[in-house]
Each structure stands twice: as C-alpha cells, then as structure tokens.
Specification:
The chain is of the alpha/beta class. The chain is built from 16 helices and 13 strands. The strands form two sheets. Strands 3-2-1-4-5-6-7 form a seven-stranded parallel β-sheet, sandwiched between helices. Strands 10-9-8-11-12-13 form a six-stranded parallel β-sheet, with helices on both faces. α8 runs parallel beside α9.
Length: 370
Amino acid sequence: MHVLYCSAGFSPHDYRFLDALNRSKHQISYWAFSDINPLESRKLPERIHDLRKTFPLRANKYRCSLQVARTIANIIQQIKPDLVHAGPLQEIAFPLSLTHFHPLVAMSWGSDILLGARSGVGWWKAKYVLRRCDGFVCDSQVVLNRAEVLGVHRTNSVVFPWGIDLDQFSPGKRGGLRADLGWDRATVLLSTRNWESIYGVDLLLEAFAQLATDMPELRMIMLGGGSMRVDIEQAVHRFGLVDKIHMAGRVAYVDLPAYYQIADVYVSASYSDGSSVSLLEAMATGLVCVVSDIPGNREWISHGREGFLFTSGHLESLTRTLRDCIEAKGEWLQLGREARALVEARADWKKNSTKLFDAYRAALQKARAS
C-alpha cells in the first residue's frame, strides 16, 4: 500500500506518525507546506519519500485552500497513492477533500475541532470533511464526541492517544541542570506548554508569584516560546522572579526527558486539550501533575489519584491546588506510580501506533464498498 501523509508542517507529532509508518512494510510519501519552519529537529525517517521540495507551496496557509487542493491533486496524479492521510482538518484535510480523492483518512489535531470548529468557516470546513472522509483518527474521546456532532460516523473512527516512548520518558535520577541551577533542595515546577493564551501560561505565572512569596524553596522551569514571550518575560521581572524561574526556551525533543526528570510537579493551565502528549510524558516520568479540569485531562487524571485538577481559568483554584499538591509531598511517590501505571496501560506508542493501520484498513474497505 502506498500512503500519502499530508500535514501542515513537520512537528514532533508528525515525526511520531512518520516514524511509525516508516517501520511498516508500506510505501510512504510525505507532503506539507514547504515554507513552514519545522518544530522538529530530528531528520525525516529514512524510507519516507519527501515531496515538500518537489511540490512547494508558498501561499498564505490560512487562505489557500484551492491552491493546496491543486497542489495535492497534482501530487496524487503523479504518485497515485492508495490512501491519503490528512490533517489538521481545516488546513489540510479540507482542501484534500476538494480533490474528491478516496480513500481519505482525516486526522484531527485536537484544536482544529475543539477550537477551530466552534463556528464560522472553521466549523463549515470541519463539517464538510467529516461528512466525506472514509476514516477518522483522533487522540481522545472528547474530540470524537465533537466530531460526531459535526457529522463523522463512529464506525469510521479510530481513537487512540498519540502516546509516548515509555523507555525514553521514565523516572530517573535528578542531577545535571538541577545542580547547575543550585536547586538541589528546591521544589521544582515544570511548564512545557507554548506561550500562547490558550495554554494559560500567564495564569500559571501569576499563581506561582503568589505562592513564591511564602514558599521560598519554590522554583519553576518554563520551556517553550510563542507570541506571549515579551509579556511573560516582563511579568517575570515585574513579579521579581528572575532568580526563581528558569526560562529554557524551545528544547529539542531528545533533551526533554532530562527536564521532566529534574522536576517535582508538572503544571498545565491549558484551556483546551485532547490527550496532551506533554501530560503523558510527565505522567510516564512519574511526576505529580496539576492540570486544568477540562474533558481531555479528565480522561487521564482523577483528582487525588494520578494527580490534581483545578478549575480551568480560575487563579484562586490553581493557586490553592498547587499549594495542596506541594503540601502533600508524602503522597508524591504513590501519585507518580499511579500515573506511570496508567500511561503504561493506555499510552504506549509502540502499541497505539498499530491502531493507525486499523483506520487505514477500515477506510480502504469503506471506499471499495462505496
């Protein structure tokens, strides 16, 4: 089988899927917007046929559905794939659906449905795709529920967490950076979310500032970057937290495990998520997790069992929950064990990635029957 994998760029998530496809017996071609700066530092898996330079696209990615459709139609005509895997929905799967190619497996990236399909053009595009695709792939029940409202059939859908490498993300010894920072005796929080409003990093920073006033041992590592960088950096100085927060910027995927291993508590104030891969990475590392009480997180965290939940967007609730978590230090080991066990049972990428081929087989059967 020849699979054409189409995406908006080259991210760690794209690498994860392409690596799984690379290990299969199938022929895999890959295309994405050629002018997007890659977020993934690893090289494309060796057997993948990279079409980005052969079929470049320079148009504004948010206004070029017809140009994307023409480009993909040209690719399909030349390489003649047996199946196309496309996502996110509005950017990639929608223009692909305009080519009328079948079988099409549409993949939601979470935010394209949970945020992008709330109303307007984004809602219409998602609905158009979901009513025409031969297969649908997503990472959580909350995303599938929303997709069903928009018209996808559950029988055509495969749900599985995008999972993690359990060998790479595992409990380990502290050291290295923790010692370099002089934080050997500190309680260290870790935030890995990008600095965008949807991830609530400003709320987290404000909560940390309140706690740090009477918890002198508290420290925080903030990874990532984004459009809020200037605001975040200014707030760190305004709150007087320069010596208590280490802003490490964007970190290569291979370096991520070390940051999880030196932390005590993982925190995410995100307002929307499916199955957050960063949450799964933290759970696999045995960290205590404090996350917003939203449907995607509730699929993984039961309050007081694998971690702690706080009311989404509520500063007082986040501050109180973080304080309760820190004061429950004696329970951290058991909480970490529960989290690790759940991830081992449900988020092992080596096992979960095989479900992608279940989606492909179902889509092929549906297309043949149509």
